[in-house]
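Ticket #4471: structure output looks truncated?

Reporter: J.K.
Steps to reproduce: submitted the chain below (325 residues) through the standard prediction queue, then opened the result file.
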Amino acid sequence: EPLRGSTTIEQIDLSLFYDRKHPDFCPAPLISCDDVLPILDSIIDREGSLLRHLHLPSEWKGEFQFDQFLRRYNEMLVNRGVISCVKCNTHVPPQDGSWINFSGWGDQNYTCYDCLQHYCKSCTTPDDAFMNMLCYCDSCDRRFCADCKRSKKCSCCDKKFCGDCKDFIDCSSAGCDADICDQCIYEAEPRERCCKCERNFCQGCSYQLLSHCDSCKKSFCYDCRQEEDDPIMSSWRCCGRCNHHSCHKCCKETPKGSRRLCKDCDHCSSCIEVTGGDLSCYGCRNLALTLLHERYRENIRLKTENKELKKQVEELEEKMKSLAT
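Returned output as attached by the reporter:
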């Protein structure tokens, strides 16, 4: 209630966001949209209001009265006249834009959460042409300019985070400047982390510097594979049937020793399994081919007998016709 009709307040944050936690609460926060919006309306309707930035609970999205309030707040900002980007002096928002992100959950565009300065969507940071001067954090749902809080883009999940929400490490590959957020490090796929030295690599470097075993699903970096004193890192083999790569432990010699098979292809040890004409056991290939050859000869014999029987039937039908006449 003390805020009702205030003309001096410049920023209001009701997002209930705590350090390193996303503002999506379950159950919903106790702040009621019906109780708060009349107070906010009294602020934006007051002549001379200095309010410049609102950050409201994302749980209110979809409520009719909330959507209507956002449109009134956007109209108040538009009626203040022309506002320019502090870096390039371009008018914000553009003619086809709006102060409120209506396609999202109602967050405010073009305004830094900390300094409340305005930036367009085209301006980028001096040292990174691909990073916007005003960057949206995918964790806290706030926008910060590069002067107030430096944001980074994770090369694995392709999301941007401010420094308060995520910690980053550099890709372990020499010369690669890709950043990896702490969540992706914790949830790293086996293809992106060496299981021996536990170094993390970005997606681009992982395919170049990590060898992945398709059987045990583990990956080893080039440096670890070169350790001659570790038998696990000895030369790998490509499966003779499916072309999947397997580490030394997952490789298995065929009886003849001519080819190696991965565990998925080396199903049986001494039996024959023929499914759809495809061999599932390379070790028994010769025996299986013999079986297939016998089946082929049996099919030829049955086809020959069938032709002979058809010929006999035709001869009998001709004799019956001659007897009938």
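Triage note (M.O.): checked the attachment and the full token line is present. The longest helix spans residues 285-324.
Status: closed, working as intended.
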